[in-house]
Design brief:
260 residues
Length: 260
């Protein structure tokens, strides 16, 4: 596909980055990314993916926009209160970039639909805000051989890693089992700054763009952690795939999403 004159002008600064160039831009225009969660992480991730020219973005979220979202969920505004988040997101992305097709899924991602939802996408952005969905996305992507970018935020802190099949450990290799309810504070309980969401969500988009264009070094086999109170960022090298992992180990016991 040859870029139109308008596309050449729209993406001129991105094309000027030698590692991306015209070929990388064409790859982005042909790419499909699923963003699970249209909240604090999903908002900046989706906006920058759209701005970069990703051809198709799917957004899955069952919630409606409320006033407490607007401090950090920059896809939405005052005029969107009461709307489905995916509708608000769809409208915002169309306003940012008409090149991008948006598929809206106003549903909770669960064991009954996750495999179908991820099936048509090149990479998945885990922008969810709860452990059950994070473990579910991990297990589904491992089983389907699908890459995904994990992130989590709370207070001033964030973390990020990318899973690519056959190239490093999965989320369950590192975190093993889902914490019991009430043992780990949620963002609602402990709070989160919008700027933390903005930084980490943008980094998720960056990881996806690198994967889709085949440039740069991914956070595969590495976990990026940051404390924005002190502005300390560090990258931790992770162990290789865990042989005892319940989903990608030598003797997996998870053979379908939600089976454990």
């Amino acid at each position: 596909m040859e870029l139109t004159r308008e596309q050449q002008e729209r993406y001129v600064r991105q094309i000027a980055v030698g590692e991306i160039n015209v070929q990388g831009q064409e790859k982005l225009l042909h790419s499909k990314v699923l963003v699970v969660g249209a909240g604090g992480l999903g908002s900046p991730a989706a906006m920058y993916l759209a701005g970069s020219g990703v051809g198709t973005i799917g957004i899955a979220d069952p919630d409606k926009v409320d006033l407490s979202n607007l401090q950090r969920q920059i896809l939405h505004g005052m005029g969107d209160l009461g709307k489905d988040k995916v509708q608000s997101a769809q409208e915002a992305i169309r306003w940012i970039n008409p090149d991008t097709q948006v598929r809206a899924y106003p549903v909770a991602v669960g064991a009954d639909n996750v495999m179908e939802l991820i099936s048509d996408y090149d990479i998945v952005i885990d922008a969810s805000d709860n452990f059950s969905t994070k473990f579910l996305i991990n297990d589904a992507c491992v089983l389907a051989g699908k890459p995904f970018v994990h992130a989590g935020v709370i207070r001033f802190q964030g973390q990020l890693m990318t899973y690519v099949p056959g190239q490093g450990p999965c989320y369950r290799c590192i975190f093993r089992t889902q914490p019991k309810d009430g043992t780990v504070p949620t963002g609602k309980q402990a709070g989160v700054l919008g700027m933390v969401c903005g930084v980490i969500g943008s980094l998720q988009a960056m990881e996806a763009v690198k994967y889709l264009t085949g440039v740069g070094e991914l956070l595969t086999g590495r976990l990026l952690t940051c404390n924005m109170f002190t502005m300390n960022f560090r990258t931790v090298n992770l162990p290789k795939r865990t042989a005892e992992c319940a989903v990608c180990g030598d003797h997996p016991v998870i053979t379908k999403p939600g089976s454990v």
